[in-house]
Amino acid sequence: MVPERLKVDGRWIAASSRFTFRLYEQALNQPGRKNVLISPTSVMLALALTYNGAGGETRRAIAITLGLERMSLEHVNRAAADLMSALSSTDSQLQLNIANSLWAREGLPLAPDFVERSREHYAAEVTSLDFSSPTAPATINSWVSKNTEGRINEVVDRIDSEIVLFVINAIYFKGQWQFPFDKEKTKDDVFRLADGRQKKLPMMFQSGLYFYQKGKGFQAVVLPYGSGQTSMYIFLPDENTPLDRFERNVTPENWETWMRGFSFAPGELTLPRFKIEYTADLNDVLSSLGMGEAFDPMRADFSEMAELPPDANRIFISRITHKALAEVNEEGTVAVAVTALLAGAALPQSPQEKFVMKVDRPFFFAIRDDPTDTLLFIGSVLDPA
Question: Is the pTM above the cut of 0.85?
Fold first, then answer.
């Protein structure tokens, strides 16, 4: 029997959903994008931790960006802590680890309240480090590698003199399908890219009873992991619906409607093995969502983060880097993400007719913790290879 999950403040869940799709929309708008993969949970937790060190208009800007302006700081922190507890899996076929850390330049007087809240609510490791040492980047990268099971090995290549603090969140997910694909049924087949080119790729196949829906302009199927509390949702646009047109409809309102639209149906599913990696600087993305002040050395207010002398330079966010990786095969999925912030000074319905869903063209997917309605990863695959 699966134990009941800890309840998470509904205001956080609603805000997380809105933030997820606003973040995804902005990521899609970045020039030269190909495959996209983000962990909105990782980004939101890193920013919520940072929010504890913000003051004045900067705090307000971060709250509005995250959609948490109607929650007190205490309630935000409690919700973040409850979410991390709720996501701690007891499923033997599922591994979900979330880790937070603060790395402060040696001599930076972090505010005691900021440190206490970081440890208490985010279980953050707080370390004072000599950033001038040649080994400092390797020390931070070692922590990242450890907390992503070696899947992401570097988020810091050098530490510039202006950097005084790193805030890092890492998420590692590994799930075995509740109903694995039979490797003997995996065959090379054609995957059609958006530009008309074709690639021969290993395509997995299975048939069975699924949560499925035929929506307006798409098919969608749910692939559960382990005990079934966490699932991958795969959305395949129709032949005459390009992926970018479908993506314009990925909104909080439509997502909520889609989540209610699944029902049991027998069917056949063909899905490519895929492995995608994604790296992005989120400064422009988050600035466009309302957080621009936090990146401005002249206006940023992180006075609650460190006890600096009156004549010291302001602390501001120099860069937010997000790295994510997902690998899907017959056994299941490995997905990891790291967000590094660099601071400078449905119920079953009646069975349907049998469906056939062949994912042989660009598609959208999400990994969702169903009891908390939390999107752990969200992405689009233009090229599975």
Answer: yes
